[in-house]
Amino acid sequence: MDASLLRCLLLVTAALASVLLARRSVRRAFGAGPAFVLWLLPMLAMALPWLPALPSQWGALPAIHVLPDGLAAGTAGAVASTHAPWPRWLWLAGAIAMLSRLVAQYLRLRRQSRPLPAALVTGLRQELHDLDPRRLRLHPSGPAVLWAPRSLVLLPADFLERFAAAERRLVLHHELTHLRRGDALWSLVAELVLALLWFHPLAWLARPRFRLDQELACDERVLRDAPHDDADYAHTLLHSVGLSPVPVLIPWLAEPQLKERLTMIQRHRPGALRRRAGVVALTVLMAGSVFVAQAAVHDQQAGQDLAYNSRMYPRYPAAAIKAGEQGTVILKVQVLADGSVGTITYEPEHSTTTSADLIAAATDAARQWRFNPEIKGGKPVTGYARVPVRFDIHPMPGKAGKDEVEKSSSK
C-alpha cells in the first residue's frame, strides 16, 4: 500500500476510534448536538491530503548521523512502495460495488415515490409551514427524509389515519428539522465515506452510531423548540412502527434507536450556554488535532526514500576529520513532484557548523537522493524538506553508535 494512503488510513482509524469512545461522554456533558459534531473528525482525517499545506519550513526530517568511518544512521521515512497493485484493485472493486448499491437503492425509492394527493396536502397545510409541497412524496417507507440535490420528505398513504393531529405535528416538525439541519447531506457524505472504507470494521461499527447520534441531535433540537412536548413526543415514538434502516433514508424511527431516544427525552438536557461551550471546545479540539496530524503528515510526505538513499549517505571528509570539524549541517532541499531533488540551500542560521568541507559533503550526497513528494489536493507537487546532517567525530555512547562501531570493527 502507498505510504501516504497508509498514513491517511491510520489517521482515519484513530479518528473513528476517538469518536466511538468519546460520543457518549460528550453527549452527557454537552448534549446530543455537540456530540454529533464529533463525526466531523473522521471526515476531516480523510480530507487531510486535500487541505492547504503547511508552510514548507515546518517540515523537518530527523537528523542523519554521519560518523568518521563513513557509516550513517538513516532517518525514519517512508520507503518506496514495492507491493503489487492488487490491493488497490480489490479496494476499487469493493468501493464501486458499494456505490452501485447506493445508487440502485436511491433510484428504486425515487421510482416508487409518488406526488402527494391534493387531499393529503390540504390536510397537512397547517403543519407544513413554508415547506414547498413539491418536496413531499408518497411512499410506504415514510415518514422519512430522502436525500437528493433537493431533499424530499416521504410520507405513507395512511399518514392522516396512522397519526393523530398532535402526533402529525411532531413527526413533521422532526422531519423538517432534519431538512433545516442539512442531515440528508451529512447522511450522504457518511454513506460515501463508508463506501470508501468498506473494508474497515470500525466504519461498519460507526455507521449505526452515526445514525443514532444524528437522530438524537434532531430530537434535541425539536424538543428545544417545543419544550413542553416531551411526553407527547415519547408517546408518538412508542406508538410508531420501526423501519429497517436503509442507507439512502433517514426514517422517523429505526427500531434499534428507540431505547436511546426515549432515554434522551427523559434525561435533563444541557442548557444553551453549556451546549455552545461544548461546540466551541470540540471545534478547537478538532482543529488542533487536524493541525497536529497535518504537521505530522507533512513531515513524512517529504520523507526520504530510504531503500534508495541508504546507498548514498554522506562521507565524512578526511580534511574535516583531520581538522576536528564536526556539527550539524541544515539543508533546505527542494523536492520536485517526481521525487527528485531541485535546488539545495545551506541554512547557516540553523546549522551548528560553518565548515565548507562538511557543507559540501552533505550537499553532494543530497543531490543524489530521492524523496516522497509533498501531496496537495491528492496530487504530488513541488515542496521543500529541511534535512539535518550531523557530523560527529566522537559520537555519544548509545545503541546506534555501538552498533555502528561494531559494524566498522568487523570489516
Automatic annotation (TrEMBL):
Residue ranges of the TM segments: 32-51, 86-104, 184-206
Subcellular location: Membrane
Membrane topology: Single-pass membrane protein
Keywords: Membrane, Transmembrane, Transmembrane helix
Pfam families per UniProt: Peptidase_M56, TonB_C
Domain of life: Bacteria
Start and end residues of each TonB C-terminal domain: 301-400
Protein name as annotated: TonB family protein
